[in-house]
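Collaborator request, handled under Task 6.
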Amino acid sequence: MQKNLIITELKASIQLASPLVAALLAQMTMEMVNIVMLGRLNAHALAAGGLSMAILFTLIVVCNGLFSASGVMIARDYGAKKHAEISRTLSQSLYLAMLLAVPCFFFLRLAPYFLSAIGQNPELIELASIFLHAFSWGMPALIIYFALREFISALSLTRVIMFLSLMIAPLTGVLNYVLMYGKWGFKPLGIAGVGYSNAIMEWFLLGATLFFIFKSSKMRPYVNFYRIDWFRIKEIVKLGLPVSVTMGLEVGLFSITTLLMGYFGADALAAHQIALQCANIAFMFPLGFAQATAIRVGQSLGYGSVQHAKYAAYVGLSLGTGIALMTALIFISIPTTIISLFIGANDHDQYILIPMAVSFISVMALFQLVDATQVIMNGALRGLKDTYVPMWLGLLSYWISGLVSGYYLAFTLKLGGIGLWWGLGIGIGVSALLLLLRFHYRIQCEEIALL
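Structure tokens returned to the collaborator:
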């Protein structure tokens, strides 16, 4: 019986997670294309792109974390076959997305003032400002898409998300090229072209998502707009805000590290951005399994099976860490080949930038397993609707353990950029341990409650 449950969960997890991983990789491909194309302009454009992405990615992850709550709520109701509740949660999450769209737009417009306040290079700030202002026009569409994506995922229809993401990725690359270099009669916009092309694609993605939802016989019946329900919105925020803060703390650790890396010069920042893009791509595999794990745990509890929820968590963890081990081996084996995809072949890059990027990637590869562990355990706890305590564990691990140790290694012990990367590894390792212990405790509580 136990073996059959594990095999069943393996099949369900892989079937659910594979399209999510593919979709996340497609989205990361869009970001990588942005970085690669900026790198072809010059090192300053690449460094400015790194600063912009640090701010943008933090905002995106925080918003995404907030709407993950609606996904968990819908998954539970889907498992319990409470179809009317699914419609109510969907409509209120869309109202919440519309409410957040305006402040997020202005956040990106004002972000360059933050870069100036912390003493970043004025030339890099100017370029980052151009990019962020252009991208801000697509932010409202992206936030609304997050709410719709959680709804689609909670119904286990993740192939739709995969298809949409795979469609958008190449189109973004083409539009980047057209607007950045001024092809087909367009004026060359440089770094602004990358921002505008991404904004255009976000609106196209939203339109395509709505088209698929209204055409789907499985999804369309749930699209029923109710009057705004502040109690339901409050419920989404109450569950999702700790997730948002937790994810923001983790991404904030990477973003603050990026900002601190700027003090070591444009070369260190460019090398850091290359290593960070590699880490982000590798992270998409366990992140996809984390999202699938949250859905599977939520659905299992929805139809009243704690045992299924337990298997869902540990199966997701096994699959995610197994893939993380493989990506770590790739980074350790061919770092120079990977780095060459991001930069040119001039002497400066060969003798300064590449060795620095190799050292960063080597450290990054070492903490792939713990990174996979912590994100999947976060997903499992989210499926249990346990988000408040993990938020405080994130504060302890990311900012107290990770940021403090990274700052000490980089600036006090004078290790420079490599010290900041070791700090990242320490913070993520502490998080993985604490979240494993937390999940073990919470699932035991669920089991005891059934006795």
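The cover message to the collaborator said: "The mean pLDDT is 84. The first helix runs from residue 2 to 41. Please let us know whether this matches your experimental observations."
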